[in-house]
Design brief:
- This protein has two domains: about 150 residues, 3-Layer(aba) Sandwich (Rossmann fold); about 190 residues, 2-Layer Sandwich (Dihydrodipicolinate Reductase, domain 2), CATH 3.30.360.10.
- Helix content is about 35%, strand content about 25%.
- The strands form two sheets. Strands 7, 8, 9, 10, 11, 12, 13, 14, 15 and 16 form a ten-stranded mixed sheet that branches. It has a six-stranded parallel sheet with strand order 3-2-1-4-5-6, with helices on both faces.
- The chain starts with 6 loop residues before the first strand and ends with a strand.
- This is Gfo/Idh/MocA-like oxidoreductase N-terminal domain-containing protein.
- Belongs to the Gfo/Idh/MocA family.
């Protein structure tokens, strides 16, 4: 039986992250780079040449032309967050499957418009949270789900920080209120919140309380912030994100019997190798001078980088719809929406003077 034809991708927008995803599309066995679109034809041409697009790839000087190409199966949308609802909705209306950069929207209401458009057109929607597709993630989840080794989840702490240079803090789109108004919360906080929800089996917290003293730039965009999340069963989570602290991307999940530590959960230290640390029923020696046993290190290898695995999975779902009349997988937009709801609650808590905000699905 012959394999299904490769899914034909178009990229709309020449953001830096589009370089990484263009490479991933090239490396994915069931996808191909079909087109690139920019508001400038010259910029699109330069991007295609610099990123190894196939000789026959289409180059367009507008996003509309990309979406009007009948040969495009799917679009990757790395545009500023403020433009997501417009272009993701239009892509869906044109019958294109949508791989959407995170954060998916400025708020859940906007994202609901995107979901509705994708559902109405029967197209697949997935966000670009790459680490979710690394095989390490499944192995970590197996540990968290093991009642004998990990027990019941009690606490999660996550952080994602990096020290941006002055030019970034002044001029990057993530510092502009008209482009990416959520700033660090939308860019870095998205990963932190996703990791918390992932550890909690995507059960939404009941209450969110933003930490005091977030940092804003002069345009009013969040440069650093944190929050605590609270569940009715007593689970608690905290996160911190910042454009103004040294690089860190950690998860610590604590259960009644075990603990998970991972120090590079968003981008692994090595492209094709990633590790995590797990411990169960640990304690001290008799004199309490050292640990009786140390956490065990678990290393997971992969032939394909996590962004390629993301494209491969997205393309598989698209092929199921295109060639087998399957329905779109709702798991991905569902967890995207839950992540967005928590971001919305953090922002609302900041705006309300750090009062608790109840999450309503």
């Amino acid at each position: 039986m012959s394999e299904a034809p490769a899914i034909r991708f178009a990229v709309i927008g020449c953001a830096d992250i589009a370089r990484k995803v263009s490479r991933a599309i090239k490396l994915a066995p069931n996808a191909t780079l079909h087109a690139i679109g920019s508001r400038s034809i010259d910029k699109a041409r330069r991007f295609a040449a610099a990123n190894g697009y196939p000789e026959g790839a289409k180059v367009y000087g507008s996003y509309e032309e990309v979406l009007d190409d009948p040969e495009v199966d799917a679009v990757y949308v790395p545009l500023p967050t403020s433009l997501h609802v417009r272009w993701a909705v239009l892509a869906a209306q044109k019958g294109k499957h949508v791989l959407l950069e995170k954060p998916v929207a400025l708020n859940a209401s906007q994202f609901d418009e995107i979901i509705e458009a994708c559902e109405s057109s029967g197209v697949q929607l997935m966000d670009g949270t790459m680490w979710m597709h690394h095989p390490r993630t499944n192995q970590m989840k197996d540990f968290l789900s093991d009642a004998n080794r990990f027990g019941q989840l009690k606490s999660i702490q996550t952080c994602f920080t990096f020290a941006a240079d002055p030019d970034f803090l002044e001029n990057d789109i993530r510092a502009k209120p008209d482009l990416d108004a959520l700033g660090s919360l939308g860019d870095e906080g998205w990963y932190c919140v996703r990791a918390i929800l992932w550890a909690a089996n995507f059960e939404l917290p009941k209450t969110v309380i933003a930490s005091r003293n977030p940092v804003f730039n002069k345009a009013g965009v969040i440069m650093a912030c944190g929050a605590s999340l609270h569940w009715e069963d007593g689970k608690v989570a905290t996160f911190y994100c910042s454009f103004m602290a040294n690089l860190a991307m950690d998860i610590t999940a604590v259960g009644t019997k075990g603990t998970l530590h991972v120090h590079d959960f968003i981008i692994p230290y090595e492209e094709k190798e990633a590790s995590f640390f797990a411990s169960s029923e640990t304690g001290f020696d008799d004199l309490v001078t050292r640990w009786a046993s140390q956490p065990s290190k678990h290393t997971v290898n992969t032939d394909l980088p996590q962004e390629v695995l993301m494209v491969r999975e997205f393309s598989r779902l698209v092929a199921e719809i295109k060639f087998k009349n399957s329905k779109p997988e709702k798991k991905w937009p569902t967890i995207s929406r839950k992540t967005q709801l928590v971001l919305d609650a953090v922002k609302a808590s900041i705006e309300k003077g750090f009062e608790p905000v109840q999450i309503q699905e």
